[in-house]
Amino acid sequence: MSATLERGLNALREQIDAPVASFFTSCVSCGLCAEACIFYRATEDPQYTPIKKLDLVRRVWSREFTLLGRIGGMLGLTKPVTDADLKAWEPLVYDSCTMCGRCTLVCPVGNDLTMMIRKMREGMSAAGHAPVELIGAAERHNDLGSPMGELHPALHAQVKNAIAETGIEIEFDKPGVDYMVILSAQEIAEFPDVLGAMSKIFKKAQITWTISNDAFEATNVGIQLGNRDVARTLVQRVVDAAEKLGVKGVISPECGHAYQALRWEGPNLIGRPYNFEVIHIIELLDKLRAEGKLKTKGKNSQKLTFHDPCQINRRGGINDEPRRLMNMVTENFVETDDAGTMNWCCGGGGGVGANERAEGLRNAAFKLKKNQLDKVQPDAIVTMCAYCHHTLDNVLEEFNMDQEVLGLTELVAEYLDDDA
Amino acid sequence: MANKPMLPELMKTHGVSRRAFMKYCASLASVMALSPAMVPRIAEALENAKRPSVIWLSFQECTGCTESITRSHAPTIEDLIFNAVSLDYHHTLQAASGHAAEAAREQAMKENYGEYVLVVDGSIPLDNPGYSCIAGISNLDMLKETAAGAAAIVSVGTCAAFGGIAHANPNPTGAVAVSEIIKDKPIINVPGCPPIPVVMTGVLAHFLTFGIPELDELGRPKAFYGESIHDRCYRRPFYDKGKFAESFDDEGARGGWCLYKLGCKGPTTKSACATVKWNNGVSFPIEAGHPCLGCTEPDFWDNGGFYKPLSVPAGDYRKMGLAAVAGGAAVGVASALLSKAGKAKAAKAHETVDAHDLEK
Amino acid sequence: MNNPAFDLLMWARGPGFDIALIIFVAGIVLRITEIIILGRKKDMAPAKGSPVAQGIKTIFSRSFPRPGLVKFAPITYIGGYIFHLGFFVAFLFFAPHIAIFEDAFGISWPNAGRVIIESATALAVLALIALIYSRMTDPVRKALTTFDDYLVLILSALPLITGYVAVNKLFGDPQMMLAIHILCVEALMIAFPFTKLMHAVSFVFARYYNGSIQGRKGAES
Questions:
Q1: Are residues A284 and A324 in the same domain?
Q2: Is residue A118 domain-shared with residue A141, that is, in the same domain?
Q3: Domain membership flag for residue B107
Q4: B332 to chain A: which residues are within 8 Å by CB?
Q5: A64 contacts on B by Cβ (under 8 Å)
Q6: Chains A, B: CB contacts under 8 A, how many?
Q7: A382, A394: one domain
Q8: Given CB 3.0 to 4.6 Å as the disulfide criterion, which of A149, A161, B119, B189 pairs with B161?
Q9: ipTM of the complex
């Protein structure tokens, strides 16, 4: 079985529901979604208007799901979607959209364009029109356990380092503990210090945890590809491992799409609720803080600002938690303009960062983030997503900006009160 | 008959001073919005008028127009005007009856052929001319016969001008206006149900003095039918302020507020009622608290209802609306089920994608 | 004798309105039914916030833009507000229009004087002119605009303009101008279910779904 137009169109048809129908019925072509989109704002190119990116879905909905559209189709007033159409729309859907969600929040009639892009990608990917890099990542994750390929050696090495540095044991595949931790490949490869940070915090808070060898990877390229079959396979691994280990909950790490995949899409992908809870690491840290189990001493004195990862704040609902944690361990925390729910996307998410064809566009789109940072002139930027962290590192370098980028979990761990 | 005394003699006999007569001519000029310079001309014309013959034919009518014209302002003066014409045939006012009346009509027609004024009130039935006959002659025949020798025709009342109440839905007699039968004579339409007395006499006086007045596209003299009731209504400030009577005898009605919401057709009705008024300027329907019926306009009986505001749809739309809801829902459900079937088909045809199946 | 203007007025108030009403009501009910029956799968992820409450809240809160956005598309926002507010004031608070609702549903509410109605009408028309200008010149709007958008703009302007002309008797025979006004309204009614005018009804659903999806996650909407 390989990708075909019909498979893609079928996948698209399955995605059309009442919300999609109400969104296309309500769109008044006001163009306000463009004003919210980093890709339009950075390039001023109207082709990046979010609703335009969705035109193929609108055509399928209209022709096949409305009486008037069916009649129009029969009369030859509209044309069916072709493979050439899907091919032409691929860059719009995958290169110029990170599914950041700003358009969803500004549409005056309430359209959730981000959700519709997610749905459109189902059709695109099933028809063979997803970026090759994402396909490659999917194959690797499927076969080898991680989008970066065989990562067990690196994982075990980093765990060993963390144990050595902190003196705290980290065990694999331990049943009956409080939490199973999953990690993003980006953290294992680039920001492994988060392991030691978690170790220290959890020891102090008396939380028991483990990592599963079968399911350590949090990233879900199925979400970025927009393919629920792939996404389901990857989520199922985590669910099976967690339920086999009998843990109370799974900790979703500093990774945007992982949280979306496991917390919000997961139960719908596998068709049932889990037997465990899913909590984001920052949600957990804030909970521990509220329970008095997270004691810190001293504060960071650098001028710090915070970058909200789109999938965790705007699309994930975690807005106040990181700020409470920041206020605990920093004394010079300055918010950018548009901080919080409407923060600007770093341009790396949604598969755009992995997409070589999109590199120029992604760099251009950084303009919006750059404006925010230029105004505040922080010494460092704190964030809670490893891929935002990775993207910011790269693009800041591209723009010759010398700010550091820090992970929030590591920052908090740095100021843990050892005596408490 | 055509040899009655001239006006000055009659005035002396009836004790009407010349001053009073000039005053009447002045008010007539003012009512027709003519300049004061016209007043001597009116007086001269009336004095020297040769007292044309006037034949008044009454067809499918209620005699309301005759009742109205005989209630005109100053009976003595109006009387004079009537005496300034030779009213040779009028069912209600003439002394003769039967064969003698018809003979008078025929003689007047013969003696004044081509010069007499024909006044008509009432509509003419066409479905079966037998519906309305006078002396065994159908209205249709009598009209055609009498119109042939007329200098001009004045259609008095909405029935003669536009068809009136008989013409209203379903028009069982096939009633039509005078102008739909006679096409080769000048016709002045003086509609109203009934028309205002002084409007009728004013039109006649104008015709005697100056000939046919300036007419609008419906053949009505612009002097009396050039403006809408709405534009001259004394309650207009309330319309503008948004103060409306909601029902008869409510606070608004008693306060003299606008009657739009009670069905007033003032905005689309052209007539002089709001300025000239009735009963020597005493009042008119709106002032008495009743919405204007629009009685100077064609088909006013079928204008949706006297108490239905102009803005409200006149048909049985509520029923239509409910039927539309039911129909729309039924078709909508059918269409949606079709869509769901299509979606189910797509789900059934779903080919589970493996990570290795993502390329063509 | 007939007055063609009166005949047109009575047709507009009679069969014309019936036809327009049927298409308007049946069309809207049909399209909304199509949306609702399509349904959506139950979301099995445990809710962090309250989907229903936020869905309902978003129906109203989405009428106000987030702070700082207006300056990036001022004509669209400000023109949009002035048009909608002006249209609603002129439509819903002019006594002859309220009389229609009273006749149809037996409900009534206070009306506004003519000065307010006419100001609202004039502002709404000016806003429409600004919006049509933006559609023709702004690159984003130009790229999005289809025949539907222009048609709806014009059909929305006509009742406002013809209403103003009819009430003020600016020109033309009063009966004819009133008939034309009613016919323009009927054209708007007929076009409603076939065009983006449907947003006036479907926006409730769209905003609700948006709010409920975000609300389930405890995220803002």
A1: no
A2: no
A3: yes
A4: 67
A5: 339, 342
A6: 75
A7: yes
A8: B189
A9: 0.95
